[in-house]
């Protein structure tokens, strides 16, 4: 064969291979399309993966089809619990589309659903970097950032006094001979860097959270200390000598304390450290050269009995009737805090509040009393706390009032010279622990001067707990004074025995509610407004009534018009959590109400309340009891009729518009009968421009000054979230720089009036006071109809408010007109303040 023939043969084989490849691509693409039509998403995904591997030039053309098959197949794999196969599919997809923000975001969503929050954060962050305008990626990243880096990290790092006290105490210890240091729960690594800068020979730090560990690594590198501090990704309980550290250390530093002091595990961590990681403590004669010690060295916990209407309305149902519905005694509404008494309960036995910023303030009913002292340098003292031993304390009442809760705080003694107080009057990064009290049986919680409050103090599972034992009137106290007792605990027991309460004969149905649900039940204005709005719709629609034949005592026939369930108006309430609105509607008459209550406890309570109020249970149904998913709740009623009224839950308790609100409203409109209504009719977001140093400090670390020169802000501020939630705007320290203005209007009945067609809305805002705009607080006016409106910023509101903190504060002058750019997409909001072009 000549040379020309030899060249033709390879070219022929190559041409044949190319043709075969094209046929394979064509057949695979055709098969993928058929599989998609048949909803065989797994096979469709496999075919498309093959096509794009063989023909990468078709990526742009087939991108949408590939994403659709991937996402559908991933949902099936998730439902089948085939997590590894799901992750493999996404890894293959990202090899083909490494810069696709939609695939990155979807991968993050699956990781988050499966509990891999650290990994999810990485994918959300990458998606946001690839497409900064992606509302889905932005919302997901903000959500997971709040999980991974709790907001108190920013507040704590901005607390200059706290940082300085720790730095000086650590410096003193190292100058006095402590040369090897272990930082337990290092967080960003700031305490370790204090130790190294003070001259520690060897510094070790441990951190369990993967996100915080990686953050600390980044911080150490930024401060040129990555080779000087050994960082361990583990719990201190898992540190072994000599595997992880060569020998016992002379100093342990830690700030694993919460508002209740023990809630972050400081007691258990230090018990283990004294037994396994620390040198023996300094003996009383002080003759040992090398010894171990802990910073903080000790603490004193204080408590106080207080009156606080805001705490009361979130933790105690104080109304006996709600818009005509009697609550009765057969159902006992109780907050989750009051029910967390079991040995296996992991719920913290307290909530936390910045008492100086509680709306309406509080009144001290007792002087501060000492709850307990803690010596962190004594293994015996720590083991005593861990044993869960309880004690009883008598607290004199010095000012009369409604007894709502105990509050607790502590004085943290870092060493002999430096201390930090978390008291309610202190400017500190810590909140106070709040222990709401349950109303005593057959008694009011009103106390008078001279009464004695008996409190049980315990530490089950190393959580501080203050429980009300009883309240003894002044006359009972006089009787006790005539007795001879050995100690305070005996006196308290005697006082408690003097107080007797009658046992209730009736069996109470327990219904546990979240704080927001308790506040909602106490919100009289909310329920009265809904009753008025529902009554208007009933009057306008007036269903037909059927007649039933009844005979009187003489046997004469009488016609009585009675509503029959089938002929009634149909109301659907898809409110989140516990809602009494269906009963209010049934009480009005001519309505059959459907509740979307998910918890069995809530359904039982509603049924019992229905009986208490003489309502026919035929007119109350639970629409989720036979449905598989929450989305199925927005369906037609079982009869052929359409809904007369649909109640949507539009605002989350935290102060944000609920996800997918507009989509749910669109479905609801399709299910309404002519003349039917969606409640609310419309939602209007209100806002104002403010200057607030507090909101800035709660959202990001403000440079290197508060962290005493260490570079921490760039690393941790990657996790800052501009939207702050669960705010009480009436007490947030801020200066209004503008009047209130309308940010956004959502008409749920007539969507064509919504101004959401453009991606960015521009609102003109007039400045009424010179200053520096740092944030835009916002709240809502919820229009049930044209005449009835609820304000989520009102004093009685069970909703909190929110604020958007601007990326860069702007200095403004009185009289200026600015433009506020607002973007609303998928229930998430972003804002930017600009000056109009001249």
UniProtKB/TrEMBL annotation:
The TPR repeat ranges on this chain: 101-134
GO MF: histone methyltransferase activity; protein-arginine N-methyltransferase activity; protein-arginine omega-N symmetric methyltransferase activity
Top EC group: transferase
Assigned keywords, A-Z: Cytoplasm, Methyltransferase, Repeat, S-adenosyl-L-methionine, TPR repeat, Transferase
InterPro entries with a match to the protein in the record: Arg_MeTrfase, PRMT_dom, SAM-dependent_MTases_sf, TPR-like_helical_dom_sf, TPR_rpt
Domain Protein arginine N-methyltransferase, residue spans: 362-459, 737-829
Catalytic activity entry: L-arginyl-[protein] + 2 S-adenosyl-L-methionine = N(omega),N(omega)'-dimethyl-L-arginyl-[protein] + 2 S-adenosyl-L-homocysteine + 2 H(+)
EC code: 2.1.1.320
Subcellular location: Cytoplasm
PANTHER family xref list: PROTEIN ARGININE N-METHYLTRANSFERASE, PROTEIN ARGININE N-METHYLTRANSFERASE 9
Name of the featured protein: Protein arginine N-methyltransferase 9
Organism, as annotated: Xenopus tropicalis (Western clawed frog)
Organism placement in taxonomy: Eukaryota, Metazoa, Chordata, Craniata, Vertebrata
């Amino acid at each position: 064969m000549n040379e020309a023939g030899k060249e033709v043969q390879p070219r022929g084989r190559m041409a044949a291979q190319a043709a075969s490849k094209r046929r394979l691509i064509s057949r695979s693409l055709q098969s993928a399309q058929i599989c998609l039509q048949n909803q065989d998403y797994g096979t469709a995904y496999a075919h498309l993966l093959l096509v794009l591997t063989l023909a990468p030039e078709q990526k742009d053309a087939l991108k949408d089809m590939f994403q659709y098959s991937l996402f559908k197949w991933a949902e099936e794999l998730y439902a089948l619990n085939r997590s590894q196969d799901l992750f493999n599919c996404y890894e293959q997809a990202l090899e083909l589309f490494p810069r696709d923000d939609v695939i990155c975001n979807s991968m993050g969503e699956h990781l988050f659903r499966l509990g891999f929050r650290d990994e999810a954060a990485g994918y959300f962050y990458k998606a946001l970097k690839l497409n900064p305008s992606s509302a889905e990626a932005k919302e997901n990243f903000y959500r997971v950032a709040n999980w991974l880096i709790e907001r108190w990290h920013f507040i704590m790092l901005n607390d200059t006094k706290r940082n300085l006290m720790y730095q000086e105490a650590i410096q003193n210890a190292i100058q006095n001979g402590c040369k090897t240091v272990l930082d337990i729960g290092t967080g960003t690594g700031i305490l370790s860097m204090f130790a190294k800068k003070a001259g520690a020979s060897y510094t070790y730090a441990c951190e369990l959270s993967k996100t915080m560990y990686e953050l600390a690594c980044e911080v150490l590198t930024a401060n040129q200390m990555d080779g000087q501090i050994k960082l361990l990704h583990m719990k201190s309980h898992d540190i072994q000598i000599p595997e992880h550290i060569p020998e016992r250390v002379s100093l342990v530093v830690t700030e694993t304390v919460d508002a209740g002091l023990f809630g972050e595990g400081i007691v258990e961590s230090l018990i283990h450290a004294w037994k396994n990681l620390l040198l023996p403590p300094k003996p009383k004669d002080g003759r040992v050269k090398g010894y171990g010690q802990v910073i903080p060295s000790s603490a004193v916990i204080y408590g106080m009995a207080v009156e606080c209407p805001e705490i009361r309305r979130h933790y105690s149902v104080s109304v006996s009737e709600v818009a005509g519905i009697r609550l009765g005694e057969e159902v006992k509404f109780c907050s989750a805090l009051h029910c967390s008494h079991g040995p296996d309960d992991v719920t913290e036995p307290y909530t936390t509040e910045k008492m100086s910023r509680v709306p309406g303030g509080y009144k001290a009913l007792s002087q501060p009393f000492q709850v307990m002292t803690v010596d962190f340098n004594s293994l015996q003292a720590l083991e005593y706390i861990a044993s869960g031993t309880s004690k009883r304390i008598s607290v004199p009442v010095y000012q009369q009032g409604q007894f709502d809760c105990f509050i607790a705080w502590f004085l943290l003694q870092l060493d002999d010279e430096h201390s930090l107080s978390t008291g309610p009057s202190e400017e500190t990064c810590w909140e106070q622990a709040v222990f709401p009290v349950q109303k005593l049986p057959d008694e009011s919680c009103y106390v008078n001067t001279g009464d004695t409050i008996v409190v049980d103090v315990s530490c089950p599972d190393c959580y501080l707990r203050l429980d009300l034992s009883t309240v003894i009137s002044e006359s009972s106290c006089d009787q006790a004074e005539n007795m001879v007792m050995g100690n305070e605990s005996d006196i308290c027991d005697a006082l408690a025995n003097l107080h007797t309460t009658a046992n209730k004969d009736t069996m109470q149905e327990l219904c546990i509610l979240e704080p927001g649900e308790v506040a909602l039940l106490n919100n009289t204005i909310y329920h009265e407004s809904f009753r008025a709005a529902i009554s208007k719709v009933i009057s306008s629609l007036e269903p037909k009534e059927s007649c039933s034949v009844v005979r009187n005592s003489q046997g004469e026939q009488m016609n009585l018009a009675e509503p029959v369930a089938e002929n009634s108006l149909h109301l659907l309430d898809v409110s989140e959590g516990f809602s009494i609105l269906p009963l209010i509607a049934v009480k009005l008459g001519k309505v059959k109400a459907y509740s979307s209550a998910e918890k069995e406890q809530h359904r039982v309570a509603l049924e019992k309340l229905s009986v208490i109020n003489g309502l026919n249970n035929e007119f109350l149904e639970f629409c989720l009891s036979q449905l598989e998913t929450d989305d199925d709740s927005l369906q037609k009623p079982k009869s052929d009729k359409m809904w007369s009224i649909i109640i949507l839950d539009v605002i989350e308790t935290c102060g944000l518009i609920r996800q997918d609100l507009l989509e749910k409203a669109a479905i609801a409109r399709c299910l309404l009968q002519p003349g039917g209504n969606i409640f609310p009719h419309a939602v209007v977001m209100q806002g104002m421009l403010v200057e607030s140093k507090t909101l800035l400090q709660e959202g990001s670390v403000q440079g290197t000054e508060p962290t005493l020169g260490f570079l921490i802000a760039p690393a941790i501020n990657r996790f800052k979230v501009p939207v702050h939630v669960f705010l009480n705007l009436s007490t947030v320290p801020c200066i209004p720089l503008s009047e209130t203005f309308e940010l956004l209007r959502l008409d749920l009945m007539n969507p064509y009036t919504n101004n959401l067609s453009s991606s960015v809305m521009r609102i003109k805002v007039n400045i009424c006071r010179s200053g520096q705009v740092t944030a835009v607080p916002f709240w809502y006016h919820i229009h049930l109809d044209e005449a009835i409106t609820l304000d989520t910023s009102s004093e009685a509101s069970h909703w909190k408010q929110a604020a958007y903190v601007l990326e860069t504060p702007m200095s403004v002058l009185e009289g200026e007109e600015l433009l506020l750019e607002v973007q609303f997409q998928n229930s998430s909001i972003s804002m930017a303040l600009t000056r109009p072009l001249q």
